[in-house]
Prior knowledge:
The protein is α/β, with parallel strands linked by helices. Helix content is 54%, strand content 7%.
Amino acid sequence: MRWRQLYRSDSLADLTNADLEVLSEIGLRSICDLRHESERVKKPDRLPSGSLASLHHIGFFPHRAESLFKRLADRDISAAEVENFLRDAYQAFPIAQRANYRGMLDMLVSDGALPALIHCTSGKDRTGFGIAAVLMALGVPRDVIVADYLLTNEYRRDLAFMIGDGVDPAVQNALKQAHPSYLAAAFDTIDRRWGSDAAYIERGLGFGSEAQDRLRSLLLA
């Protein structure tokens, strides 16, 4: 892939002044925010002064996320239950959020969209599957997609900004970890419904061969 054309991130709401300088140097043309409207209102993105990046709000809550966060707030959930919640969410992404992920891909192939940044709140789940969809559209094999997804674990920050202090460390780890079984749950849905990644992109998302060719011309070296 071409370097410095596509980025993924967690929330941009808490960027420091030093962060803003880095972001300014990147020269983003597009930001795709996968957070639900209520998340955006509560913690709006912080962007460099004079940023020319166009904002694309393609947001949603993952499957059962509100129930998950209520139980986290009540400190009434185990690490194993968090993992089950997340597998359910990933299993739902390919079907329930087809329109949103198609909108994300359409944004990337629009004129002048790159460099682009895709983010949500934690940068792992909605964004993790979103980037996986981009890589599927580029023809990247699954083992490489999973390896890229697992890089999330090397670049994590404390999730207290999402769930507060005092959460069982095992629960917080289950929530913030990019685990292969999560992405495998999404692939399982794709295989059962469409049979392959290529069929999912073509028929499931309706992102046809011409659009795929354009994406490849933009993002592949």
